[in-house]
Design a protein that fits this description.
alpha/beta; D-Maltodextrin-Binding Protein, domain 2; six-stranded mixed beta sheet; three-stranded parallel beta sheet; 14 strands
Length: 245
């Protein structure tokens, strides 16, 4: 037993030291991220991306030196790092961005009614309650408002299902998450049917561009103004850097 403990201690001492102290340090590094997430796409832009299928595997890869650092959306990172040893989140945020809907550029009327719905949901506290639910663990269940006049028609949302807590499938296989519930609340406020199509995260904008969906949400590039219109924001989020201690 003494020999085993000594051997394990020796392994810990051999872990590579952290070389990432600021966001500027990650350029060209081996960057870990969860497979299929916006973080993985960002990692490809910044260095040599290495993807993992679970957060636990990602942390193990970081601790053992398979990757130099990891990037992840802040909400997911806070939860993962709080239960892990040997890693920490840099205080400097890598990227901050706002969550918005992409809307067909030629449909100014739709953009206007979506923005009006978001303002009403902000004014009545629904957006705040949904943000608290997914960002702070508040016990909140969204219920459709009463007395809304129903109208013919529907709105279809294009989204991916690999980005908790924003868009994912629950244990029953149902779509849920902040993005999904905000879109559903918008449709309830407008009195129209709500539908979802699942697409790869790289195809969110093209789904709206080619008319497969009326709305898209998720990781939307910052240079898409010529392709689609962008709604007002309904939440803020960030990408953070996880490093070895």
């Amino acid at each position: 037993m003494v020999l085993i403990i000594a051997a394990l201690a020796g392994c810990r001492d051999e872990r590579p030291p952290n070389e990432v102290f600021t966001a500027d340090d990650i350029s060209g590094m081996i960057i870990g991220a969860l497979n299929g997430t916006p973080s993985a796409r960002l990692a490809e832009e910044l260095g040599l991306a290495r993807t993992f299928y679970t957060g636990e595997d990602l942390i193990t890869g970081l601790v053992t030196g398979t990757v130099d650092c990891a990037i992840m959306e802040s909400v997911m990172a806070d939860e993962l790092v709080s239960g892990s040893q040997g890693v920490r989140i840099l205080s400097e945020t890598l990227l901050e961005y706002e969550l918005r809907f992409a809307v067909p550029r030629e449909n100014a009327q739709l953009l206007n009614v979506v923005n009006n719905a978001l303002k009403a949901l902000d004014d009545n506290g629904t957006l705040r309650d949904l943000r608290d639910k997914y960002f702070s663990g508040k016990n909140y269940t969204y219920t459709p408002p009463e007395g809304i006049e129903q109208h013919p028609g529907e709105l279809t949302l294009a989204t991916s299902s690999d980005s908790p807590p924003y868009s994912y499938k629950d244990s029953d296989g149902e779509y849920t998450g902040l993005d999904i519930e905000v879109a559903r609340a918008v449709c309830d406020y407008l009195g129209v049917e709500f539908n979802i199509i699942e697409v790869d995260s790289k195809e969110l904008v093209t789904a709206v561009w080619f008319g497969r969906a009326n709305l898209a949400t998720g990781w939307l590039p910052g240079d898409i103004d010529e392709q689609v219109s962008i709604s007002d924001a309904y939440a803020d989020t960030a990408q953070v850097i996880i490093v070895r201690k």
